[in-house]
# Entry
Amino acid sequence: MATKYVNAVISEEQGDGSLPVLEGTLGPSAVDIQTLYARHNLLAFDPGFRSTAACKSAITFVDGDKGILLYRGYSIEGLAEHSDFVEVAYLLMHGELPTPAQRKQFDLSLGTHNMLHEQVLSFYRGFRRDAHPMAVMVGVVGALSAFYHDVMNIRDANDRQLAATRLVAKMPMLAAASYTYSIGRPQRYPNNRLDYASNFLQMMFGTPAQEYVVDPVLARALDVIFILHADHEQNASTSTVRLAASSGANPFACIAAGIASLWGPAHGGANEAVLKMLMEIGSVENIPKAIDRAKDKNDSFRLMGFGHRIYKNFDPRSLVIQAQAKKVLAHLGKDDPLLEIAMRLEEIALKDEYFIERKLYPNVDFYSGILLRAMGFPMNMFTAVFAVARTAGWVSHWLELQGESHGIDRPRQIYVGSTLRHYPGKK
# Structure
């Protein structure tokens, strides 16, 4: 069959076969193809949806060419410097920064709903001790729907806000419990005298035998990590949440689906992959060999943490996280050989024409793993920390979708299987 082509011409005149062009407040325009199948019996083919706008959203804007990331119009650099995670969560969920009164009420709501039901805690004993924390979180978050089904009418605005607040509030204890259970340590409860990040640290590393003293430098570093990872537009996990939500599924099931998607090493597990790569390199002396291997098409070795599918020139989050990593390591007095390898690797790669031409620069994952490692987080908790932060973004997208007149999402396909076949007769 001969290849067919459609010539698209953008015009201000409407014709019988024309499709409207939609404009956002920032970013590229989009061709509205909703009538393409009905009017022309054609589908759009876009594997991975990399040239498809699946929805309209007012939450997060990313300009990959210019290295811009905005939450509700506020730059990520400004928020990381001046704000905290709870304020950013409110901003994402409600569209505006909270007034002092709104912030006080939001803090109160988070403090009211940050504990897990005691029967939920009993679920942990059903998992193997060596289970990955993300596996535990997928199961436990989904199970929360069994405890709050009486106030989970997604058509009711108050119920929606309550469900979203519960998820943001409970996720730190839920994630920390998955870690403490794995090492046989008693599960810790939230302390409402502490801020969000500090609470997570004491639930992760505190013991009943002695009072946990929060290091403010570490607490602030963790808060910044939460801010940087709170949302990132229509990535795999966020799109999964919205896809699940379009079916009318309850919010706990939707967020559990998002956690499952985030678990993939190409998504939330990328910082863990960076550390494994640095360990494989082993020393500064081995960096030239590693770079040569990365350039070799026949070698499976890859430099993890370099480049980004969206950011073409630089990741605006990387400079913020790099500064935090250096600050924490200096504060703790740790001389991490992996950081030395990372810094030297970054220095060489940024001067190498191979990486310059391909715009392979360090991204947020390159330093976040080193920072979390310095703070005492085990490697298998890196993605769980990411999930705690991203919950704020996920529930914001869930809330946004519920406020729209939106039917169930139903992608189409180009069928390439067998044509009609008849079942063979019996002999």
In short: The beta strands are 21-22, 30-31, 60-63, 68-71, 74-75. The CA atoms of residues 206 and 212 lie 5 Å apart. The first helix runs from residue 36 to 40.
